[in-house]
């Protein structure tokens, strides 16, 4: 306690002189020097932070003072900034003041000093500045390491459009350092021996990850990244609403992104309740309504980033900003063809307030009906006047009934009404063709319009009623979507009723009447021209009782299958325009106009043909040229179909070109073709005239012609001329002589060639070969199956002399007989003319023929022997032995005459062949033996001998036969 | 004693703690027990080789993606800004024993895994829309993790080594953005270089 008392006394004693001093200060101004000046560096903000005190003030004294601050760079004498700072100061108060440097503080040493002056109204003038404080140094470089190069400021955040200064410190004075903004070289100014600064003006946003600024010398490049922020925009469209009177939601458009990783903050402040909330989203914020509901809110939205602060304000009435939640569970109920009940639910708001709901009915995307319904929890509405079998969509949205502000989001539900019977009869037409006098009716009908079908058409009923036989009723059911059917009728009158059916029932019937007989089809066809709108046509009514008219046509060209179209017109109509998207220029369309009688019978009124637009012919006819003479030729193009052209053919142009460039003949006119060649042109103005004779031509001249049709739109292509050369005047005469002559010569040559062998045989016959003799065929013809030719080896000419003489002479030859081996060299030929009996092995009767190619006189001198012929002659010898029948007859006649001298009772004869000359058998083989008188050297008519006279000894017969068979190769 | 435990030990820990860096620890003695959480597959070395090959094949594209995303001056100053002169990178001796090589591989993979984590973190902030780079970084980190696990399994199962001392690269979180970009580029350049050597060595 004693110690405490001593201290208290000392304190009071010390206060006493202080009080005295205070009184003196107030009475006269004294300079108050700032003390304890401290300078620190904030590198991030590039700020020098100063703090100091003024100790000289009295206790409890507050003075308004002005502080003058000087800042120097690099050295104290280099003052770069000086300014005043005014504030009220208390004794021992630590004063703070910051200064932001445009140059990064790391790049330069800074010096700061402060002086002060009292600026208080209580202190009378004059006023004096105190002394400057001592220079305080701010040196950021001392904390740097020993890197050769530094670039500052690090990670600087700047706003787009602002200026920024970047500097580098190089430890190496010799290094030549260049700096770049991204890849663009930047020029700076030297601030100190080691320091350069670069002032970047109006920096722009490049990318969210920053803009690189770097410097490089010989070492590793060093750099910094500038983060450029776009200017923070003021929030737009700031509004608040509530869905349930419990939570407020304020929303706004934040504008474009600032482009920084650090997003701006949004704060919602309510001034009445003085509450604020930091928004979690950049475009909306939730605000909880308190239990004691506040009706009016004054909201301020503050958007803030490093550089700016933006705010918007709104005065909001809770009741006026109710935006209900969308209704739910919207369903159709009790849906039939024309009615449907829609039900839905809503979320209650506040104290079960009513909602105004809008029910919209949409069909094909358009609002058809719209109804407002007041709803608390459940909504219901009966929709009427609906179309059967139609897709609808019901849509509901609701709004706060007490104060309408905004519709809720809508919900929708699709539904389809039920079907009803089709409301209209189908549009029916018919095509009647008569086959064998019986009408065949093809009924066509158009699909009903959607508005009339009232459902899906399932089938069409066709009822055929025979008016002549009322009891006869035929019913056809054609399933949809077919639109035609064919009915074959008798020659009676009929009424055909067509109805369309859906699941709800049939449509009204459409009736057509058919007469059993063809009507008047001989109506002359008229022509008409189409227009852009279609084919306008009119007609004259024939009867006053017509119930309507039908125009019928085909949609396609004539060469295509007809797609039958028709148009129904009322009874008072006498004209219409037929239009169709299928109509094309250059296509001929045929129209038929029918009048419908009261009995629904159709009578043909008129036929019309026309083109929507006539075109020039696309091709020329195939012209056939005939009757070419030296002065004329005929052109013909009868196959050219005028009906199927691209326009009405009005005629033809015949173009004629001559190389000589002659004058055009009568009827032709000179014309210049598109290729500038000149030719003559003849006009045929009758489209049915399809031949033309070009006359008055020069012989032996070259002409070119072309026939092209023309329509009202022009003529056909002029690009395919045909050349023709007229002959000279005599050529036809020569032609008439030379051609037959050549033909005759050819015929003769061909005949000679074909009959050369025959001619040779006739004119220059070879030495007869018995094997090839026609006599063999004669024998064959006489049906002797055992014919053969006697082998030369078998021939023993001197064995028997065949003489038609008395038997006495027979023995003269016996002694002169030679063996077969002896006769081999002469190769005599023997011909077996008539067959012998099968079982006969002995000699038989024979006939000796005379060869007329030999001298008859000489033949008379020769010998001719005959031998029995062996029946075992090879059958192959018979093959070639065929001869013409006439020759056979001739021979028969001759031989029969000869045989006439033989007694008729001798049926079996042996023929004795005459010996051939040694030269005749084989021309190439020289005669080995000279001819002997004993051999037969000529053919001679053989005489039939009685069997008994010609019989050789039996033993010799058998030996001869065997020789013949053993050596067939010797035969010729 | 409690006061000592509560005050002195944390103080010592704080004093010796360096963010992102680990102090070397000795290799587990051979006779120490070594158990892995899961049984090691039989074809471990094949898997290690395949993973190294996979990393080697994608290292260059990752490097290109990285420096392209950083903007100039990186693509045109690769030799200076992205030179693979990482000072404290763990060494590798290709001619050592398999055990020594696996231990060195483990250290390298651990170093790379941590550095890649830093790069991935930085790039997600600096280049939020470089999704291709992020994806590549993540997939590389995944393979590195698998490789690390396999190497450890091999070391444990065959050489009974369960712990290997590892070092990590510098933490970039306190550095300026340009330095982050540069360090990342250098690390990926080094990664591209060293992974080729590793793939060849195994």
UniProtKB/TrEMBL annotation, chain A:
Compartments in which it is found: Membrane
Stretches assigned to the Fibronectin type-III domain: 326-420, 425-521, 617-729
MF terms in GO: growth factor binding; oncostatin-M receptor activity
Superkingdom of origin: Eukaryota
SMART domains, per the entry: FN3
Keywords: Disulfide bond, Glycoprotein, Membrane, Receptor, Repeat, Signal, Transmembrane, Transmembrane helix
Gene3D superfamilies: Immunoglobulins (2.60.40.10)
Residue ranges with Low complexity bias: 957-972
Protein name: Oncostatin-M-specific receptor subunit beta
Originating species: Moschus moschiferus (Siberian musk deer)
UniProtKB/TrEMBL annotation, chain B:
Record GO terms (molecular function): cytokine activity; growth factor activity; leukemia inhibitory factor receptor binding
Localization: Secreted
Glycoprotein keyword on record: yes
Cellular component GO terms, alphabetical: cytosol; extracellular space
Pfam assignment, any one: LIF_OSM
InterPro entries linked to this entry: 4_helix_cytokine-like_core, Leukemia_IF, Leukemia_IF/oncostatin, Leukemia_IF/oncostatin_CS
PROSITE patterns: LIF_OSM
Taxonomy, superkingdom: Eukaryota
Keyword line: Cytokine, Disulfide bond, Glycoprotein, Growth factor, Secreted, Signal
Signal sequence annotation: 1-22
Listed GO biological process terms: blood vessel remodeling; cell morphogenesis; cell surface receptor signaling pathway via STAT; decidualization; embryo implantation; fibroblast proliferation; gene expression; immune response
Secreted recorded as keyword: yes
Main location: secreted
Descriptive protein name: Leukemia inhibitory factor
């Amino acid at each position: 306690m004693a110690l405490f008392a001593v201290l208290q006394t000392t304190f009071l004693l010390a206060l006493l002189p202080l009080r005295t001093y205070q009184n003196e200060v107030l009475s006269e101004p004294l300079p108050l020097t700032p003390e304890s000046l401290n300078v620190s560096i904030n590198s991030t903000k590039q700020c020098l932070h100063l703090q100091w005190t003024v100790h000289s003030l009295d206790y409890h004294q507050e003075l308004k003072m002005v502080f003058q601050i000087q800042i120097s760079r690099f050295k104290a004498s280099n003052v770069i900034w000086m300014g005043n700072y005014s504030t009220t100061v208390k004794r021992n108060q630590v004063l703070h003041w910051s200064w932001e440097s445009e140059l990064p503080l790391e790049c330069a040493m800074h010096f700061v000093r402060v002086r002060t002056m009292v600026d208080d109204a209580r202190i009378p003038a004059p006023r004096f500045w105190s002394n400057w404080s001592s220079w305080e140094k701010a040196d950021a470089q001392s904390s740097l390491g020993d890197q050769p190069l530094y670039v500052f400021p690090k990670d600087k955040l700047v706003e787009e459009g602002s200026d920024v200064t970047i500097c580098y410190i190089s430890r190496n004075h010799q290094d030549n350092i260049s700096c770049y903004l991204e890849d663009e070289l930047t020029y700076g100014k030297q601030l100190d021996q080691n320091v350069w600064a670069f002032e970047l003006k109006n920096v722009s946003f490049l990318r969210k990850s920053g803009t690189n600024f770097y410097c490089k010398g010989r070492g590793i490049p060093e750099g910094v990244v500038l983060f450029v922020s776009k200017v923070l925009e003021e929030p737009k469209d700031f509004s608040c609403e509530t869905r349930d009177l419990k939570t407020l939601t304020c929303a706004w458009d934040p504008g474009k992104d600032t482009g920084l990783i650090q997003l701006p903050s949004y704060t919602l402040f309510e001034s009445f309740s003085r509450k604020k909330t930091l928004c979690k989203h950049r475009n909306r914020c939730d605000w909880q309504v308190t239990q004691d509901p506040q009706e009016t809110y004054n909201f301020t939205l503050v958007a803030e980033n490093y550089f700016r602060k933006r705010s918007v304000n709104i005065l909001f009435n809770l009741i006026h900003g109710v935006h209900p939640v969308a209704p739910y569970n919207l369903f159709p109920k009790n849906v039939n063809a024309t009615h449907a009940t829609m039900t839905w639910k809503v979320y209650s708001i506040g104290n079960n307030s009513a909602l105004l709901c809008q029910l919209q009915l949409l069909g094909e995307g358009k609002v058809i009906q719209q109804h407002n319904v007041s709803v608390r929890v459940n909504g219901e509405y009966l929709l009427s006047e609906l179309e059967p079998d139609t897709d609808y969509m019901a849509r509901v949205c609701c709004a706060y009934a007490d104060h309408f502000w905004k519709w809720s989001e809508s919900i929708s539900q699709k539904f389809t009404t039920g079907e009803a019977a089709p409301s209209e009869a189908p549009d029916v037409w018919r095509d009647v063709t008569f086959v064998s006098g019986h009408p065949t009716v093809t009924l066509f009908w158009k699909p009903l319009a959607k508005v009339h079908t009232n459902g899906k058409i399932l089938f069409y009923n066709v009822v055929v009623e025979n008016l002549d036989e009322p009891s006869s009723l035929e019913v056809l059911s054609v399933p949809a979507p077919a639109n035609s059917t064919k009915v074959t009728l008798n020659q009676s009158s009929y009424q055909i009723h067509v109805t369309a059916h859906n699941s709800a029932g049939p449509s009204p019937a459409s009736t057509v009447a058919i007469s059993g007989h063809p009507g008047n089809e001989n109506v002359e066809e008229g022509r008409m021209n189409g227009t852009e709108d279609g084919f306008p046509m009119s007609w004259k009514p024939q009867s006053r009782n017509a119930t309507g008219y039908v125009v019928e046509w085909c949609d396609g060209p004539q060469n295509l299958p007809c797609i039958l179209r028709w148009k129904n017109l009322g009874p008072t109509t006498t004209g219409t325009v037929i239009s169709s998207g299928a109509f094309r220029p250059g296509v001929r369309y045929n129209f038929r106009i029918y009048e419908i009688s009261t009995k629904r019978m159709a009578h043909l009124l008129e036929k019309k043909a026309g083109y929507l637009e006539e075109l020039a012919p696309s091709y020329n006819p195939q012209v056939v040229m005939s009757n070419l003479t030296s002065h004329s030729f005929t052109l013909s193009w009868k196959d050219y179909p005028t009906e199927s052209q691209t326009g009405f053919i009005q005629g033809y142009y015949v173009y004629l070109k001559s190389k000589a460039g002659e004058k055009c003949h009568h009827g032709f006119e000179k014309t210049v073709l598109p290729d500038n060649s000149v030719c003559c042109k003849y006009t045929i103005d009758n489209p049915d005239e399809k031949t033309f004779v070009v006359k008055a031509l020069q012989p032996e001249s070259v002409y070119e012609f072309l026939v092209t049709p023309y329509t009202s739109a022009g003529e056909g292509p002029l690009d395919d001329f045909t050349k023709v050369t007229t002959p000279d005047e005599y050529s036809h005469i020569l032609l008439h002589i030379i051609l037959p002559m050549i033909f005759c010569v050819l015929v003769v040559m061909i005949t000679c060639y074909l009959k050369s062998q025959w001619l040779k045989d006739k004119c220059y016959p070879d030495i007869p070969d018995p094997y090839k003799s026609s006599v063999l065929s004669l024998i064959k013809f006489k049906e002797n199956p055992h014919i053969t030719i006697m082998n030369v080896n078998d021939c023993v000419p001197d064995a028997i002399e065949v003489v038609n003489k008395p038997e006495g002479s027979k023995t003269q030859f016996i002694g002169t007989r030679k063996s077969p081996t002896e006769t081999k060299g002469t190769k005599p030929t023997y011909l077996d003319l008539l067959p012998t009996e099968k079982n006969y092995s002995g000699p038989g009767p024979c006939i000796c023929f005379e060869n007329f190619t030999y001298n008859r006189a000489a033949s008379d001198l020769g010998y001719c022997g005959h031998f029995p012929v062996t029946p075992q002659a090879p059958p192959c010898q018979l093959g070639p032995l065929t001869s013409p029948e006439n020759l056979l007859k001739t021979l028969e006649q001759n031989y029969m005459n000869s045989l006439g001298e033989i007694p008729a009772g001798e049926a079996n004869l042996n023929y004795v062949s005459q010996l051939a000359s040694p030269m005749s058998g084989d021309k190439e083989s020289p005669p080995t033996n000279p001819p002997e008188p004993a051999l037969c050297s000529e053919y001679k008519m053989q005489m039939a001998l009685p069997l008994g006279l010609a019989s050789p000894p039996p033993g010799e017969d058998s030996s001869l036969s065997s020789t013949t068979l053993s050596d067939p190769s010797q035969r010729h | 004693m409690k006061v000592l435990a509560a005050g002195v030990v944390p103080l010592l820990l704080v004093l010796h703690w360096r963010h992102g860096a680990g102090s070397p620890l000795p290799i587990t003695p051979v006779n120490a027990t070594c158990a892995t959480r899961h049984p090691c597959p039989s074809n471990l070395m094949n898997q290690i080789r395949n993973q190294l090959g996979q990393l080697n094949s994608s290292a260059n594209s990752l490097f290109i993606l990285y420096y392209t995303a950083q903007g100039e001056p990186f693509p045109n100053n690769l030799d200076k800004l992205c030179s693979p002169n990482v000072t404290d990178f763990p060494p590798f001796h290709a001619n050592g024993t398999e055990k020594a090589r696996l231990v060195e591989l483990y250290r390298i993979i651990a170093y790379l895994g941590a550095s890649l984590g830093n790069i991935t973190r930085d790039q997600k902030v600096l280049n939020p829309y470089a999704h291709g780079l992020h994806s590549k970084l993540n997939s590389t980190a995944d393979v590195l993790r698998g490789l690390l696990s396999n190497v450890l399994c091999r070391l444990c199962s065959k050489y009974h080594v369960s712990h290997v001392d590892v070092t990590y690269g510098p933490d970039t979180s306190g550095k300026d953005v340009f330095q982050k970009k540069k360090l990342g580029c250098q690390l990926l350049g080094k990664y591209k270089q060293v992974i080729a050597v590793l793939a060849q060595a195994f």
